[in-house]
Amino acid sequence: MDDVDTRTIDIATMPRGGPTASCLDRALQTDRLEYLDRDDVDAATKRSVIRALERTGELFGNHERFAHIALDEVADLPDPRIVELGAGHGGLSARLLEAHPTARLTVTDVEPDSVAAIAAGELGAHPRVTVRVFDATSIDAADDAFDLAVFALAFHHLPPAAAARVIAEGTRVATKLLIIDLPRPPAPLHLLRLATMLPFAPFIPFVHDGVISSLRTYSPSALRALAAHAGADIELRGGLMSPQVAVATRAR
Ligand SMILES: C[S@@+](CC[C@H](N)C(=O)[O-])C[C@H]1O[C@@H](n2cnc3c(N)ncnc32)[C@H](O)[C@@H]1O
Known about the structure:
By secondary structure, the chain is an alpha/beta fold. It has ten helices and seven strands. It has a single domain, classed as Rossmann fold, CATH 3.40.50.150. About 40% of the residues lie in helices and about 20% in strands. The protein has a seven-stranded mixed beta sheet, with helices on both faces. Helix 3 packs across helix 4, helix 7 crosses helix 10 and helix 8 runs antiparallel to helix 9. The radius of gyration is 17 Å and the shape is globular. The site of S-adenosylmethionine has 19 residues, from helix 2. S-adenosylmethionine binds next to helix 2. It comes from Mycolicibacterium arenosum. Pfam families: Methyltransf_25.
């Protein structure tokens, strides 16, 4: 990536592995949509995927871990204003509220059914919470409305041009945009990961979406190119065996 002039990249066609992705890496991607992103999939299947994400997030401690990563980003602020984009089930926001006594949260998703389910639960009744439908590519909020925007396990849902818009929008409405997503391993390791999941994909909707997520997730060099296209600075952490963490800010 360092050798690539980002001005010459056609962002819409950039491979998920980044501008200089290998042939094998380019083969390990798909335009196929996850059940969650399809209009022709019934609401019950989508709910089953969201419930499975909520449960596995609890089981493996991801909601808790992601909440602490987020709170570290606003550690110097007494009453941080945080927006969760693509919240799905709201598990991460629930942990943020527990861990911070005065943070104010706006919990959002593009999917009205998910937002209605969150609003009908405990989060919807919490005095420090607002629940809204927000499209992360076009956020209905003023510039600098938040200190932090968080987008967890959702960035890979968006093709590159839309993903770049999320970075532009997230860094417009918030001082920092925190993206947490699956790592994109080097291609041979990626093949191995896919091989362990593929046999179950036709039978379990959650695994079906997991395989597609793996094929759609962005590499660090892709994240850098997307941020450059969006006019943002980006700092990357984690990776290989742990979730990728990216913190984007508006370029000064
Ligand atoms: C895999 S789920 C992740 C849910 C939750 N953040 C988690 O960590 O388990 C992806 C979520 O992103 C949401 N999403 C997809 N495109 C979006 C967009 N353009 N704006 C906001 N949310 C979006 C989906 O509706 C879904 O709830």
